[in-house]
Input
Amino acid sequence: MDMQDDRETHEITGLLDRWRLGDMDAANELMELAYADLHRIAAREMRREHGEHTLQTTAVLHEAYLRIFRSAPVKWKDRSHFYAVAAQQLRRVLLDHARRVLSEKRGGGIVKLSFLESDGTGISVDERLLTLDAALARLEDLDPRAAKVVELRFFGGLTESDAAEVLDISVATLKRDWDFAKTWLAAQLA
Output
C-alpha cells in the first residue's frame, strides 16, 4: 500500500467512525471519497453484460448506495469492511434486477462470465445470475468462507489482499479458497 492508499484508508476509516456515531455529513463525505472506486466496481459488473440491457452503471451504484444508507446502522470496522458491504449490496441490486426481469417474462441482456472462463457464448444475464446466486447459496452451506471470497472478489472487485483483510485470513488461504470456489462453481454451473 502506498502513502496515498494509506492516507485514504485512514480517512475512510475515520469517516466510518464518525458515521457510526450518527454524523450524516461523514456519510456523505465518505460517499464522495469512495464514489470513484464504487463506480469502477459497478462498471466492471456492467461490462459483463452485453447486448440490450436496462441497467446503467450509475443506476446500479446509486441503488446500492441507497441500500447502504437506508439500512440499520452498521458497526463499521474499516475501509475493507465498507467495500465488502458495498459488494454485497451491488450483488443484491443485480440479483433483484434479474428476478424482476424474469418475473416480467422479458429477456435479459447477455453476459460472459469471465469468472468461470466460459467459452464466450451468450446466455441470459438474468438466468445465469440467478443460477450463480443459487450455486453460491449451496457453496455457502458447504464452505461459508469460500462463498464470501467469491462475493468479495467477483461481485465486490476487492483485491486478494483487501479480501483477505476483510476475512482476517492470509492471502495464501484466500487463494486456496478462491481456487476451490471457482472449481466447485464451474462444476455446479456446467
User: Anything to note?
Assistant: The chain has eight helices and three strands. The helical segments are 3-20, 24-47, 57-70, 79-103, 125-142, 144-155, 160-167, 171-189.
